[in-house]
Amino acid sequence: xxxxxxxxxxxxxxxxxxxxxxxxxxxxxxxxxxxxxxxxxxxxxxxxxxxxxxxxxxxxxxxxxxxxxxxxxxxxxxxxxxxxxxxxxxxxxxxxxxxxxxxxxxxxx
Length: 109
Hints:
Elements: E1 3-4, H1 8-17, E2 19-22, E3 26-32, E4 37-41, H2 50-67, E5 77-83, H3 92-108
Parallel strand pairs: 1-4, 4-5
Antiparallel strand pairs: 2-3, 3-5
Helix pairs in contact: 2-3
Family: Belongs to the RnpA family.
GO molecular function: 3'-tRNA processing endoribonuclease activity; ribonuclease P activity; tRNA binding
Protein name: Ribonuclease P protein component
């Protein structure tokens, strides 16, 4: 697919300089960059125990695959998805539509 963000400096840059869209299920941060990389985050405070956090992260990664991503040239840059509390209760297709709308708004600005 594409690379993952791993360095703290990359996360800090995306949080500080990137554009943000808040959805019902997640918060999406985007920072234009030459290489396409992503990260998914699920905090213990927002999501809960390890099982629920891992489920939320798997769901976010699958949403990125379903929407397409850098492989089809939809976006080029650093993308950070932060899970919100209601992500596990929402329907997959509804959350997918939400991600598509957020990406469209971010990339059209």
